């Protein structure tokens, strides 16, 4: 018969693999007296992806430590965060989250009866909660509310008041869910410290805060619902998993920003306490690792090849995804999925009697625009006005891109700079060299013509998705068909604002770190 873990062992289970704990002494004090009550909340916005296995794996740890765990489906938060979930889709998306999160937990062997599931609107619309929101708004400054949500609430040029309410509601959830601790990603840290500062001003206790690291996505940046190539969807087919893992950033010997290794560390190892590298006998045969550090060391020393690492993760990941795929293969859940996440690029059927109706929606989410880093720049061998650039867009190999920038941008100003690249144009030969994308630039309206490459925020990584405000959830076309002229139709409404921000129909081009801009060409066009 297994002996129940003691306070020290429980503390280890609760805190292992976390990046930071605020309130360690209080956590140990509670453990010495009783079981800890913890909640994890998720706003019901974009489709959950495989990175959600990271908090699920920690929830399994919490249960092993005897904790009482509540999972909050934060439906109201999803609406308040710049309406990431439209009101008419809120109920559908919350139902989708409930089904998919429960399927994930079942796939890793977590008993659902030990968990409590709550929707935000179950209590956030009550008289008492609403009064506390007003009480909180009377003591919180606008500066503190904006600062608290900076890493979580979508940042736009003209923020809505709803985004300022978001951190306060998350703080109050700790009191209304009657927990000792809140668990989340380290990107929530500012909201957690906001809660620690302001809850006592309402007479409520300061809580413990447990923070997971933000694991890199497959492109090397944060895994995100709005960056299609950075994440594997829970319902992706096996061939899609293979394709995305094949493209994943996994440089030989490089353990920094390696999303494949991070997934093993934070999901696969904690679940099984081991990981098997699958490989042919001629390369040494299969090898079982019982400590993540040993695997990381072998990868750093190039004993383990990226191809074998990816293949092994593919097998292990599909074992986790198979029961989720099977559950969502039912007609009822298929219908729920398509209703909760309608494809914006799919045409709505034309009404009877309409003429010249557009056969498909021409929306910015159909463009695959990414941040790129220029690795090399050379003059085109057969054209004096063209550069041939090698640009890293987060894929295994850099893309070759031909640009007519020789007259406008000196070679040394392009070398090593970040640019904005349209990646799903049909490749075409330009004077004998195939170009696999287009560097987007601002152009002046009058003469003499001036051209400036668009600038992403300086902290961006190569491969990060660029999207238009309000269109972050759609999936880009695999390849834009030249005859459809999708890019040309959208480009007609591309402009540079008076603040030098790139826009489509007065909506900003964004990355998760901020707006796309240019240096000086106010009112210019984008091409």
TrEMBL record:
Any one cellular-component term (Gene Ontology): cytoplasm
Chain intervals for the UniProt region annotation (Disordered): 335-362
Keyword terms of this UniProt record: Aminoacyl-tRNA synthetase, ATP-binding, Cytoplasm, Ligase, Nucleotide-binding, Nucleus, Protein biosynthesis, RNA-binding, tRNA-binding
UniProt-listed GO biological process terms: response to stress; tyrosyl-tRNA aminoacylation
Compositionally biased residues, Basic and acidic residues: 348-358
Gene3D superfamilies named among the record's database cross-references: HUPs, Nucleic acid-binding proteins, Tyrosyl-Transfer RNA Synthetase
Family assignment from sequence similarity: Belongs to the class-I aminoacyl-tRNA synthetase family.
Protein name per its UniProtKB record: Tyrosine--tRNA ligase
Gene (name only): Yars
């Amino acid at each position: 018969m297994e002996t129940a873990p003691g306070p020290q062992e429980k503390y280890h289970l609760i805190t292992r693999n976390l990046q930071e704990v605020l309130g360690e002494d209080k956590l140990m004090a509670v453990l010495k007296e009783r079981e800890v009550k913890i909640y994890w909340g998720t706003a019901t916005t974009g489709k959950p992806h495989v990175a959600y296995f990271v908090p699920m794996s920690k929830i399994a740890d919490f249960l092993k430590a005897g904790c009482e765990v509540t999972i909050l489906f934060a439906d109201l938060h999803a609406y308040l965060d710049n309406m990431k979930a439209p009101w008419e889709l809120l109920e559908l998306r919350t139902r989708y989250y409930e089904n998919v999160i429960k399927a994930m937990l079942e796939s890793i062997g977590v008993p659902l009866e030990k968990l409590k599931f709550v929707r935000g609107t179950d209590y956030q619309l009550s008289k008492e909660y609403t009064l506390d929101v007003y009480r909180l708004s009377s003591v919180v400054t606008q500066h503190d509310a904006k600062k608290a949500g900076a890493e979580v609430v979508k940042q736009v040029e003209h923020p809505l008041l709803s985004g300022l309410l978001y951190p306060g509601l998350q703080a109050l959830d700790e009191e209304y869910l009657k927990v000792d601790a809140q668990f989340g990603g380290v990107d929530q840290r500012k909201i957690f410290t906001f809660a620690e500062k302001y809850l006592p001003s309402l007479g409520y206790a300061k809580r413990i805060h447990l923070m997971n690291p933000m694991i890199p996505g497959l492109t090397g940046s944060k895994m995100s619902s709005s960056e299609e190539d950075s994440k594997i969807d829970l319902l992706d087919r096996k061939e899609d998993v293979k394709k995305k893992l094949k493209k994943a950033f996994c440089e030989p010997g490089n353990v920094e920003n390696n999303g494949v290794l991070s997934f093993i560390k934070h999901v696969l190892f904690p679940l099984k306490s081991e990981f098997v590298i699958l490989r042919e006998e001629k390369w040494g045969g299969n090898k079982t690792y019982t400590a993540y550090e040993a695997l990381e060391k072998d990868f750093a020393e190039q004993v383990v090849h990226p191809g074998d690492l990816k293949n092994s993760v593919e097998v292990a990941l599909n074992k986790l995804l198979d029961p989720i795929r099977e559950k969502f293969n039912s007609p009822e859940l298929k219908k729920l999925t398509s209703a909760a996440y309608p494809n914006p690029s799919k045409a709505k059927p034309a009404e009877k009697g309409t003429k010249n109706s557009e056969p498909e929606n021409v929306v910015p989410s159909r463009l695959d625009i990414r941040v790129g880093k220029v690795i090399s720049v050379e003059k085109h061998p057969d054209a004096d006005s063209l550069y041939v650039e090698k640009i890293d867009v987060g894929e295994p190999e850099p893309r070759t891109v031909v640009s007519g920038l020789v007259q406008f941008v000196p070679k040394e100003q392009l070398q090593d700079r970040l640019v904005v690249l349209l990646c799903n144009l049909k490749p075409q030969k330009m004077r004998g060299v195939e170009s696999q994308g287009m560097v987007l630039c601002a152009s002046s309206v009058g003469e003499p013509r001036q051209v400036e490459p668009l600038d992403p925020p300086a902290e961006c990584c190569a491969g990060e998705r660029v999207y238009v405000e309000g269109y972050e959830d759609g999936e880009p076309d695999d390849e834009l068909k030249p005859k459809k002229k999708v890019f040309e139709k959208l480009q007609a409404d591309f402009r540079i604002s008076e603040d030098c921000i790139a826009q489509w129909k007065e909506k900003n081009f964004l990355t998760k770190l901020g707006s796309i801009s240019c240096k000086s060409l106010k009112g210019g066009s984008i091409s």
